[in-house]
Amino acid sequence: MNKVTDSTPWLGCIADDFTGATDLASFLVASGLRTIQVNGLPTPQQIANIKDVDAVVIAVKSRTIPVQDAVELSLACLEVLQSLGCAKYYFKYCSTFDSTPEGNIGPVIDALMSKLNAASTVVCPALPVNGRTVYQGHLFVFDQLLHESPMKDHPLTPMKDSSLVRMMEAQGTGKAVSIPSQVVEQGPGALTEALETQRVNHHYLVLDALSTDHLKCIGECLSSFTLITGGSGLAIGLGKEFEDCGGNLTEVTSSVQPIAAPTLVLSGSCSAMTQKQVAAYRTSHPVMELDPAKLVTGEQSVDSIITWLASAIDRAPLVTATAAPDIIAENHQNYGAEFIAGLIEQTFGALAIAASDQLGVRNFVVAGGETSGAVVNALGVDSFYIGKSIAPGVPMVQTPGEQPINLALKSGNFGQQDFFFQALETLSCC
Ligand SMILES: Nc1ncnc2c1ncn2[C@@H]1O[C@H](COP(=O)(O)OP(=O)(O)OP(=O)(O)O)[C@@H](O)[C@H]1O
Ligand SMILES: O=C(O)[C@@H](O)C(=O)CO
Prior knowledge:
Blueprint: E1 11-15, H1 18-30, E2 35-39, H2 44-48, E3 55-59, H3 67-84, E4 88-92, H4 105-115, E5 121-124, E6 132-135, E7 138-141, E8 144-145, H5 164-171, E9 176-179, H6 181-185, H7 188-198, E10 204-207, H8 212-219, E11 227-230, H9 239-244, E12 263-267, H10 272-282, E13 287-289, H11 292-297, H12 302-312, E14 318-320, H13 325-335, H14 337-359, E15 363-367, H15 369-379, E16 383-391, E17 394-398, E18 406-410, H16 419-428
Parallel strand pairs: 1-3, 1-4, 2-3, 4-11, 5-10, 5-11, 9-10, 12-14, 12-15, 13-14, 15-18
Antiparallel strand pairs: 2-16, 6-7, 7-8, 16-17, 17-18
Helix pairs in contact: 3-4, 12-14, 13-14, 14-15
The structure holds adenosine-5'-triphosphate and ligand LCNOYBR7.
Protein backbone atom coordinates (compact mmCIF):
# COMPACT_ATOMS: atom_id res chain seq x y z
CA MET A 1 0.00 0.00 0.00
CA ASN A 2 1.35 3.42 -0.98
CA LYS A 3 1.52 5.78 2.00
CA VAL A 4 0.36 9.39 1.81
CA THR A 5 3.02 12.00 2.46
CA ASP A 6 2.56 15.69 3.23
CA SER A 7 4.52 16.97 0.29
CA THR A 8 3.26 14.90 -2.61
CA PRO A 9 -0.17 14.39 -4.13
CA TRP A 10 -1.51 10.89 -3.58
CA LEU A 11 -3.56 10.57 -6.76
CA GLY A 12 -2.50 11.60 -10.27
CA CYS A 13 -5.31 11.81 -12.83
CA ILE A 14 -5.38 12.26 -16.58
CA ALA A 15 -8.74 13.24 -18.08
CA ASP A 16 -9.27 12.97 -21.83
CA ASP A 17 -11.39 16.11 -22.06
CA PHE A 18 -12.03 19.28 -20.09
CA THR A 19 -15.60 18.73 -18.93
CA GLY A 20 -14.54 15.23 -17.87
CA ALA A 21 -11.75 16.75 -15.82
CA THR A 22 -13.99 19.16 -13.91
CA ASP A 23 -16.47 16.30 -13.48
CA LEU A 24 -13.78 14.12 -11.88
CA ALA A 25 -12.37 16.99 -9.81
CA SER A 26 -15.82 17.71 -8.36
CA PHE A 27 -16.25 14.08 -7.23
CA LEU A 28 -12.75 13.97 -5.72
CA VAL A 29 -13.48 17.15 -3.76
CA ALA A 30 -16.81 15.68 -2.63
CA SER A 31 -14.92 12.58 -1.45
CA GLY A 32 -12.69 14.78 0.72
CA LEU A 33 -9.52 15.01 -1.39
CA ARG A 34 -7.97 18.45 -1.87
CA THR A 35 -7.81 18.68 -5.65
CA ILE A 36 -6.33 20.96 -8.29
CA GLN A 37 -7.10 20.87 -12.01
CA VAL A 38 -4.37 21.78 -14.46
CA ASN A 39 -5.31 22.39 -18.09
CA GLY A 40 -2.98 20.91 -20.70
CA LEU A 41 0.43 19.39 -20.20
CA PRO A 42 1.77 21.41 -17.25
CA THR A 43 4.75 23.72 -17.66
CA PRO A 44 7.61 23.59 -15.10
CA GLN A 45 6.14 26.74 -13.49
CA GLN A 46 2.73 25.09 -13.11
CA ILE A 47 4.34 21.96 -11.73
CA ALA A 48 6.19 24.06 -9.14
CA ASN A 49 2.85 25.60 -8.08
CA ILE A 50 1.22 22.24 -7.30
CA LYS A 51 1.36 22.19 -3.50
CA ASP A 52 -0.82 21.08 -0.60
CA VAL A 53 -3.13 18.89 -2.64
CA ASP A 54 -4.13 15.24 -2.44
CA ALA A 55 -5.08 14.87 -6.08
CA VAL A 56 -4.00 16.47 -9.35
CA VAL A 57 -6.23 16.28 -12.42
CA ILE A 58 -4.57 17.06 -15.73
CA ALA A 59 -7.12 17.91 -18.41
CA VAL A 60 -6.11 17.24 -21.99
CA LYS A 61 -8.05 17.33 -25.22
CA SER A 62 -7.10 13.84 -26.34
CA ARG A 63 -10.41 12.09 -26.90
CA THR A 64 -10.67 12.61 -30.63
CA ILE A 65 -7.11 13.38 -31.73
CA PRO A 66 -5.12 10.74 -33.67
CA VAL A 67 -4.42 7.64 -31.57
CA GLN A 68 -0.65 8.05 -31.49
CA ASP A 69 -0.94 11.71 -30.43
CA ALA A 70 -3.31 10.73 -27.61
CA VAL A 71 -0.90 8.06 -26.42
CA GLU A 72 2.09 10.42 -26.46
CA LEU A 73 0.21 13.22 -24.71
CA SER A 74 -1.11 10.86 -22.02
CA LEU A 75 2.36 9.42 -21.42
CA ALA A 76 3.77 12.92 -21.11
CA CYS A 77 1.10 13.69 -18.48
CA LEU A 78 1.95 10.47 -16.66
CA GLU A 79 5.60 11.49 -16.57
CA VAL A 80 4.65 14.78 -14.92
CA LEU A 81 2.48 12.99 -12.36
CA GLN A 82 5.26 10.51 -11.64
CA SER A 83 7.71 13.38 -11.17
CA LEU A 84 5.31 14.81 -8.56
CA GLY A 85 5.54 11.50 -6.70
CA CYS A 86 1.92 10.35 -7.01
CA ALA A 87 1.21 6.95 -5.51
CA LYS A 88 -1.76 5.99 -7.67
CA TYR A 89 -2.99 6.93 -11.15
CA TYR A 90 -6.46 7.39 -12.67
CA PHE A 91 -7.29 7.62 -16.36
CA LYS A 92 -10.67 9.36 -16.69
CA TYR A 93 -12.74 8.90 -19.86
CA CYS A 94 -16.36 9.53 -20.62
CA SER A 95 -19.20 7.82 -18.80
CA THR A 96 -20.51 6.99 -22.27
CA PHE A 97 -17.09 5.59 -23.26
CA ASP A 98 -16.77 8.11 -26.13
CA SER A 99 -14.29 6.56 -28.54
CA THR A 100 -13.98 4.90 -31.93
CA PRO A 101 -13.11 1.24 -32.68
CA GLU A 102 -9.46 2.38 -32.88
CA GLY A 103 -9.40 4.31 -29.66
CA ASN A 104 -8.40 6.36 -27.97
CA ILE A 105 -9.37 4.69 -24.69
CA GLY A 106 -7.81 1.25 -25.29
CA PRO A 107 -4.45 2.41 -26.67
CA VAL A 108 -4.05 5.02 -23.92
CA ILE A 109 -4.82 2.42 -21.23
CA ASP A 110 -2.31 0.00 -22.81
CA ALA A 111 0.39 2.68 -22.88
CA LEU A 112 -0.23 3.75 -19.26
CA MET A 113 -0.25 0.13 -18.08
CA SER A 114 2.99 -0.60 -19.85
CA LYS A 115 4.72 2.51 -18.44
CA LEU A 116 3.49 1.70 -14.93
CA ASN A 117 4.29 -2.00 -15.23
CA ALA A 118 0.67 -2.72 -14.42
CA ALA A 119 -0.42 -6.12 -15.74
CA SER A 120 -4.11 -5.38 -15.18
CA THR A 121 -6.49 -2.53 -14.51
CA VAL A 122 -10.18 -1.89 -13.93
CA VAL A 123 -12.57 -0.40 -16.49
CA CYS A 124 -15.67 1.28 -15.07
CA PRO A 125 -17.38 4.21 -16.82
CA ALA A 126 -20.49 3.95 -14.60
CA LEU A 127 -21.98 7.08 -13.07
CA PRO A 128 -25.42 6.01 -11.81
CA VAL A 129 -26.36 9.47 -10.50
CA ASN A 130 -26.37 10.57 -14.15
CA GLY A 131 -27.99 7.41 -15.49
CA ARG A 132 -24.83 5.62 -16.68
CA THR A 133 -24.75 2.06 -15.39
CA VAL A 134 -22.84 -1.07 -16.34
CA TYR A 135 -24.70 -4.38 -16.25
CA GLN A 136 -23.14 -7.70 -17.35
CA GLY A 137 -20.39 -5.67 -18.98
CA HIS A 138 -22.82 -3.57 -21.04
CA LEU A 139 -23.07 0.20 -20.74
CA PHE A 140 -26.50 1.76 -20.32
CA VAL A 141 -27.62 5.38 -20.60
CA PHE A 142 -30.67 5.44 -18.35
CA ASP A 143 -32.93 2.68 -19.75
CA GLN A 144 -31.18 2.34 -23.11
CA LEU A 145 -28.15 0.38 -24.17
CA LEU A 146 -25.40 2.80 -25.19
CA HIS A 147 -25.67 1.94 -28.89
CA GLU A 148 -29.42 2.55 -28.85
CA SER A 149 -29.15 5.82 -26.92
CA PRO A 150 -28.69 9.25 -28.54
CA MET A 151 -24.92 8.54 -28.31
CA LYS A 152 -25.32 6.54 -31.54
CA ASP A 153 -25.54 9.91 -33.33
CA HIS A 154 -22.62 11.69 -31.65
CA PRO A 155 -20.91 14.00 -34.17
CA LEU A 156 -17.38 12.76 -33.40
CA THR A 157 -17.65 9.43 -31.58
CA PRO A 158 -20.91 7.72 -32.59
CA MET A 159 -21.23 4.74 -30.25
CA LYS A 160 -22.26 1.59 -32.13
CA ASP A 161 -21.60 -1.06 -29.47
CA SER A 162 -22.52 -1.35 -25.78
CA SER A 163 -20.29 -4.23 -24.74
CA LEU A 164 -17.32 -2.85 -22.81
CA VAL A 165 -15.56 -6.22 -23.04
CA ARG A 166 -15.85 -6.19 -26.84
CA MET A 167 -14.87 -2.52 -27.14
CA MET A 168 -11.83 -2.93 -24.88
CA GLU A 169 -10.63 -5.96 -26.80
CA ALA A 170 -11.18 -4.13 -30.11
CA GLN A 171 -9.29 -1.05 -29.00
CA GLY A 172 -6.60 -2.56 -26.78
CA THR A 173 -4.16 -5.41 -27.18
CA GLY A 174 -5.17 -7.29 -24.02
CA LYS A 175 -7.98 -9.57 -22.84
CA ALA A 176 -11.07 -8.27 -21.05
CA VAL A 177 -13.52 -9.90 -18.67
CA SER A 178 -16.75 -8.74 -17.07
CA ILE A 179 -17.15 -8.82 -13.28
CA PRO A 180 -20.93 -8.91 -12.87
CA SER A 181 -23.07 -6.96 -10.46
CA GLN A 182 -23.94 -10.16 -8.57
CA VAL A 183 -20.32 -10.23 -7.37
CA VAL A 184 -20.20 -6.51 -6.56
CA GLU A 185 -23.45 -6.94 -4.66
CA GLN A 186 -21.76 -9.48 -2.33
CA GLY A 187 -19.44 -6.77 -1.02
CA PRO A 188 -15.72 -5.96 -0.87
CA GLY A 189 -14.56 -9.45 0.18
CA ALA A 190 -16.14 -11.28 -2.76
CA LEU A 191 -15.23 -8.53 -5.19
CA THR A 192 -11.57 -8.46 -4.15
CA GLU A 193 -11.43 -12.23 -4.56
CA ALA A 194 -12.97 -12.03 -8.05
CA LEU A 195 -10.56 -9.27 -9.07
CA GLU A 196 -7.55 -11.25 -7.84
CA THR A 197 -8.73 -14.39 -9.66
CA GLN A 198 -9.56 -12.68 -12.96
CA ARG A 199 -6.46 -10.50 -13.14
CA VAL A 200 -4.29 -13.61 -13.52
CA ASN A 201 -5.58 -14.17 -17.07
CA HIS A 202 -7.08 -10.81 -18.03
CA HIS A 203 -5.78 -7.30 -18.50
CA TYR A 204 -9.01 -5.29 -18.37
CA LEU A 205 -11.45 -6.05 -15.55
CA VAL A 206 -14.78 -4.54 -16.59
CA LEU A 207 -16.79 -3.76 -13.47
CA ASP A 208 -20.56 -3.66 -13.27
CA ALA A 209 -22.02 -0.84 -11.19
CA LEU A 210 -25.73 -0.11 -10.90
CA SER A 211 -25.71 2.24 -7.94
CA THR A 212 -23.58 4.62 -5.94
CA ASP A 213 -23.33 1.89 -3.29
CA HIS A 214 -21.72 -0.38 -5.88
CA LEU A 215 -19.18 2.36 -6.63
CA LYS A 216 -18.43 2.69 -2.92
CA CYS A 217 -17.88 -1.07 -2.69
CA ILE A 218 -15.62 -0.98 -5.77
CA GLY A 219 -13.64 1.87 -4.21
CA GLU A 220 -12.76 -0.39 -1.30
CA CYS A 221 -11.19 -2.99 -3.58
CA LEU A 222 -8.78 -0.95 -5.68
CA SER A 223 -5.76 -0.64 -3.40
CA SER A 224 -3.72 -3.20 -5.32
CA PHE A 225 -4.20 -1.38 -8.63
CA THR A 226 -1.60 1.28 -9.41
CA LEU A 227 -3.70 2.36 -12.38
CA ILE A 228 -7.48 2.62 -12.34
CA THR A 229 -9.60 3.73 -15.30
CA GLY A 230 -13.16 4.87 -15.59
CA GLY A 231 -15.63 7.71 -15.49
CA SER A 232 -15.78 10.10 -12.56
CA GLY A 233 -17.89 7.61 -10.59
CA LEU A 234 -14.85 5.60 -9.50
CA ALA A 235 -13.76 8.64 -7.46
CA ILE A 236 -16.82 8.27 -5.23
CA GLY A 237 -15.33 5.32 -3.35
CA LEU A 238 -11.68 6.33 -3.17
CA GLY A 239 -11.81 8.13 0.18
CA LYS A 240 -11.40 4.95 2.21
CA GLU A 241 -8.24 3.84 0.42
CA PHE A 242 -6.82 7.35 0.79
CA GLU A 243 -7.49 7.19 4.54
CA ASP A 244 -6.04 3.69 4.78
CA CYS A 245 -2.89 5.09 3.19
CA GLY A 246 -2.68 7.67 5.98
CA GLY A 247 -4.47 10.55 4.25
CA ASN A 248 -6.85 12.91 6.04
CA LEU A 249 -10.17 13.50 4.36
CA THR A 250 -10.91 17.20 4.28
CA GLU A 251 -14.19 19.00 3.98
CA VAL A 252 -12.92 21.18 1.19
CA THR A 253 -14.31 24.68 1.59
CA SER A 254 -14.14 26.58 -1.63
CA SER A 255 -13.05 30.17 -2.06
CA VAL A 256 -14.79 30.29 -5.43
CA GLN A 257 -17.34 33.11 -5.48
CA PRO A 258 -19.77 34.48 -8.09
CA ILE A 259 -18.48 37.36 -10.20
CA ALA A 260 -20.70 40.36 -10.87
CA ALA A 261 -19.85 40.66 -14.56
CA PRO A 262 -21.47 39.70 -17.88
CA THR A 263 -22.11 36.03 -18.67
CA LEU A 264 -21.91 34.33 -22.04
CA VAL A 265 -23.32 30.87 -22.76
CA LEU A 266 -21.63 28.90 -25.55
CA SER A 267 -23.11 25.60 -26.70
CA GLY A 268 -21.25 23.32 -29.11
CA SER A 269 -22.69 20.09 -27.76
CA CYS A 270 -25.32 18.34 -29.87
CA SER A 271 -26.25 15.88 -27.14
CA ALA A 272 -29.90 15.16 -26.45
CA MET A 273 -29.88 16.94 -23.07
CA THR A 274 -28.07 19.99 -24.44
CA GLN A 275 -30.73 20.30 -27.13
CA LYS A 276 -33.38 20.50 -24.39
CA GLN A 277 -31.30 22.99 -22.39
CA VAL A 278 -30.85 25.24 -25.44
CA ALA A 279 -34.57 25.06 -26.18
CA ALA A 280 -35.42 26.01 -22.58
CA TYR A 281 -32.95 28.90 -22.45
CA ARG A 282 -34.04 30.44 -25.74
CA THR A 283 -37.52 31.08 -24.35
CA SER A 284 -36.16 33.94 -22.24
CA HIS A 285 -32.65 34.85 -23.44
CA PRO A 286 -31.14 36.26 -26.64
CA VAL A 287 -29.81 33.50 -28.89
CA MET A 288 -27.51 33.53 -31.92
CA GLU A 289 -27.19 30.38 -34.02
CA LEU A 290 -23.79 29.48 -35.44
CA ASP A 291 -24.42 28.50 -39.03
CA PRO A 292 -21.58 26.35 -40.41
CA ALA A 293 -22.49 27.17 -44.03
CA LYS A 294 -22.31 30.90 -43.32
CA LEU A 295 -19.08 30.51 -41.34
CA VAL A 296 -17.52 28.79 -44.35
CA THR A 297 -18.49 31.61 -46.75
CA GLY A 298 -17.65 34.32 -44.23
CA GLU A 299 -21.23 35.60 -44.18
CA GLN A 300 -21.09 34.94 -40.42
CA SER A 301 -17.89 35.74 -38.55
CA VAL A 302 -16.54 36.29 -35.05
CA ASP A 303 -16.75 40.07 -35.67
CA SER A 304 -20.39 39.94 -36.76
CA ILE A 305 -21.35 37.81 -33.76
CA ILE A 306 -19.48 40.08 -31.35
CA THR A 307 -21.34 43.09 -32.77
CA TRP A 308 -24.61 41.31 -32.03
CA LEU A 309 -23.38 40.18 -28.60
CA ALA A 310 -22.53 43.77 -27.64
CA SER A 311 -26.22 44.65 -27.84
CA ALA A 312 -27.31 41.61 -25.81
CA ILE A 313 -24.52 41.09 -23.32
CA ASP A 314 -26.42 42.37 -20.29
CA ARG A 315 -28.99 39.57 -20.84
CA ALA A 316 -26.59 36.59 -20.69
CA PRO A 317 -26.89 35.63 -24.37
CA LEU A 318 -26.38 32.19 -25.84
CA VAL A 319 -24.39 31.38 -28.97
CA THR A 320 -25.18 27.87 -30.14
CA ALA A 321 -24.18 25.38 -32.83
CA THR A 322 -26.34 22.69 -31.23
CA ALA A 323 -28.15 20.83 -33.98
CA ALA A 324 -30.21 17.69 -34.57
CA PRO A 325 -28.63 14.53 -36.08
CA ASP A 326 -29.97 15.16 -39.64
CA ILE A 327 -28.40 18.64 -39.76
CA ILE A 328 -25.10 17.33 -38.39
CA ALA A 329 -25.13 14.59 -41.06
CA GLU A 330 -25.72 17.21 -43.75
CA ASN A 331 -22.82 19.33 -42.44
CA HIS A 332 -20.57 16.28 -42.39
CA GLN A 333 -21.50 15.44 -45.96
CA ASN A 334 -20.95 18.99 -47.20
CA TYR A 335 -17.73 19.84 -45.39
CA GLY A 336 -16.30 16.74 -43.65
CA ALA A 337 -16.80 15.95 -39.94
CA GLU A 338 -13.35 16.95 -38.79
CA PHE A 339 -13.30 20.22 -40.71
CA ILE A 340 -16.68 21.41 -39.49
CA ALA A 341 -16.04 20.39 -35.86
CA GLY A 342 -12.72 22.24 -35.98
CA LEU A 343 -14.28 25.35 -37.53
CA ILE A 344 -17.04 25.50 -34.93
CA GLU A 345 -14.62 24.90 -32.03
CA GLN A 346 -12.23 27.54 -33.37
CA THR A 347 -15.12 30.02 -33.66
CA PHE A 348 -16.19 29.39 -30.05
CA GLY A 349 -12.58 29.87 -28.89
CA ALA A 350 -12.24 33.16 -30.77
CA LEU A 351 -15.63 34.34 -29.49
CA ALA A 352 -14.59 33.65 -25.90
CA ILE A 353 -11.43 35.74 -26.27
CA ALA A 354 -13.25 38.61 -27.98
CA ALA A 355 -16.10 38.54 -25.44
CA SER A 356 -13.62 38.66 -22.58
CA ASP A 357 -11.43 41.40 -24.12
CA GLN A 358 -14.10 43.58 -25.70
CA LEU A 359 -17.27 42.98 -23.68
CA GLY A 360 -15.91 42.35 -20.20
CA VAL A 361 -17.37 38.83 -19.98
CA ARG A 362 -16.02 37.02 -16.92
CA ASN A 363 -18.54 34.22 -16.60
CA PHE A 364 -18.66 31.51 -19.24
CA VAL A 365 -21.09 28.61 -19.39
CA VAL A 366 -19.88 26.14 -21.99
CA ALA A 367 -21.70 23.00 -23.17
CA GLY A 368 -19.65 20.14 -24.60
CA GLY A 369 -16.28 18.62 -23.79
CA GLU A 370 -14.52 19.38 -27.07
CA THR A 371 -16.10 22.82 -27.10
CA SER A 372 -14.95 23.46 -23.52
CA GLY A 373 -11.43 22.38 -24.45
CA ALA A 374 -11.40 24.84 -27.32
CA VAL A 375 -12.68 27.69 -25.12
CA VAL A 376 -10.34 27.00 -22.20
CA ASN A 377 -7.33 26.66 -24.50
CA ALA A 378 -8.23 29.88 -26.33
CA LEU A 379 -8.60 31.79 -23.05
CA GLY A 380 -5.20 30.45 -22.00
CA VAL A 381 -6.54 29.33 -18.64
CA ASP A 382 -3.98 27.00 -17.11
CA SER A 383 -5.63 25.85 -13.89
CA PHE A 384 -8.85 25.92 -11.90
CA TYR A 385 -10.05 26.10 -8.33
CA ILE A 386 -13.05 23.82 -7.94
CA GLY A 387 -16.22 25.42 -6.60
CA LYS A 388 -19.66 24.17 -5.72
CA SER A 389 -21.60 21.75 -7.88
CA ILE A 390 -24.26 23.16 -10.19
CA ALA A 391 -25.39 19.65 -11.19
CA PRO A 392 -23.80 16.24 -10.52
CA GLY A 393 -20.44 16.28 -12.34
CA VAL A 394 -20.58 19.97 -13.22
CA PRO A 395 -18.89 22.23 -10.69
CA MET A 396 -18.40 25.94 -10.98
CA VAL A 397 -14.66 26.53 -11.47
CA GLN A 398 -12.56 29.67 -11.17
CA THR A 399 -9.22 30.72 -12.58
CA PRO A 400 -6.55 31.92 -10.15
CA GLY A 401 -5.24 35.49 -10.26
CA GLU A 402 -6.44 39.04 -9.71
CA GLN A 403 -9.01 39.06 -12.50
CA PRO A 404 -10.58 35.61 -12.11
CA ILE A 405 -12.97 34.11 -14.61
CA ASN A 406 -15.77 31.75 -13.60
CA LEU A 407 -16.67 28.85 -15.82
CA ALA A 408 -19.17 26.01 -15.89
CA LEU A 409 -18.00 23.32 -18.28
CA LYS A 410 -20.95 21.06 -18.90
CA SER A 411 -20.61 17.58 -20.30
CA GLY A 412 -23.01 17.08 -23.18
CA ASN A 413 -25.65 15.03 -21.43
CA PHE A 414 -25.28 16.36 -17.88
CA GLY A 415 -27.63 18.66 -16.01
CA GLN A 416 -31.38 19.06 -16.15
CA GLN A 417 -33.36 21.12 -18.65
CA ASP A 418 -32.88 24.34 -16.65
CA PHE A 419 -29.10 23.89 -16.34
CA PHE A 420 -28.14 27.14 -18.13
CA PHE A 421 -30.39 29.14 -15.77
CA GLN A 422 -28.85 27.46 -12.72
CA ALA A 423 -25.34 28.02 -14.04
CA LEU A 424 -26.06 31.69 -14.70
CA GLU A 425 -27.27 32.15 -11.16
CA THR A 426 -24.32 30.27 -9.64
CA LEU A 427 -21.60 31.98 -11.66
CA SER A 428 -22.81 35.56 -11.58
CA CYS A 429 -25.39 35.53 -8.81
CA CYS A 430 -28.12 36.90 -11.10
N1 LIG B 1 -24.13 21.87 -36.14
C1 LIG B 1 -23.05 21.08 -36.07
N2 LIG B 1 -22.66 20.32 -37.12
C2 LIG B 1 -21.56 19.54 -37.01
N3 LIG B 1 -20.77 19.46 -35.91
C3 LIG B 1 -21.13 20.20 -34.86
C4 LIG B 1 -22.28 21.04 -34.87
N4 LIG B 1 -22.38 21.68 -33.71
C5 LIG B 1 -21.36 21.26 -32.96
N5 LIG B 1 -20.58 20.38 -33.64
C6 LIG B 1 -19.36 19.72 -33.16
O1 LIG B 1 -19.74 18.58 -32.42
C7 LIG B 1 -18.77 18.35 -31.39
C8 LIG B 1 -19.52 18.20 -30.08
O2 LIG B 1 -18.63 17.71 -29.13
P1 LIG B 1 -18.57 18.23 -27.64
O3 LIG B 1 -17.57 17.37 -26.96
O4 LIG B 1 -18.34 19.70 -27.59
O5 LIG B 1 -20.02 17.95 -27.10
P2 LIG B 1 -20.53 16.61 -26.40
O6 LIG B 1 -19.87 15.44 -27.02
O7 LIG B 1 -22.01 16.65 -26.41
O8 LIG B 1 -20.03 16.80 -24.93
P3 LIG B 1 -19.29 15.75 -23.97
O9 LIG B 1 -18.10 15.23 -24.72
O10 LIG B 1 -18.92 16.61 -22.82
O11 LIG B 1 -20.30 14.71 -23.67
C9 LIG B 1 -17.83 19.55 -31.40
O12 LIG B 1 -16.63 19.22 -32.07
C10 LIG B 1 -18.62 20.59 -32.18
O13 LIG B 1 -17.79 21.53 -32.83
O1 LIG C 1 -17.95 11.18 -17.91
C1 LIG C 1 -18.68 12.00 -18.48
O2 LIG C 1 -19.77 11.72 -18.99
C2 LIG C 1 -18.17 13.39 -18.65
O3 LIG C 1 -17.31 13.75 -17.62
C3 LIG C 1 -17.44 13.53 -19.93
O4 LIG C 1 -16.34 13.07 -20.05
C4 LIG C 1 -18.14 14.20 -21.02
O5 LIG C 1 -17.26 14.65 -22.00
